[in-house]
Design a protein that fits this description.
It is a single chain. Helix content is 34%, strand content 26%. The protein is α+β, with helices and mostly antiparallel strands. A hairpin with a 2-residue loop joins strand 2 and strand 3. A 4-stranded antiparallel sheet has the order 1-4-2-3, with helices on one face.
Amino acid sequence: MTKNIKIGIPTGLEARPLAVLVQVASQYESSIYIEVGTKKINAKSIMGMMTLALKADEEVKVSAQGEDEVAALEHIEKYLSGKEQ
């Protein structure tokens, strides 16, 4: 399951919001990846996610695969869109 999501967090994904995203992703059993351009990074890897340097209003492709993929994708979309801080 894949979804394009626009980052609505005003500061983009600097250190704190990035750490929260990794925590959100880590709550789920599913494999979760964030794609930007040619990079595809495991959303549960803080070091990997830091390499993306995601900014506000940037669009990313989020994919989740596994037993709880729907819930995982919904929660990550809610967080990245800035509706949950």
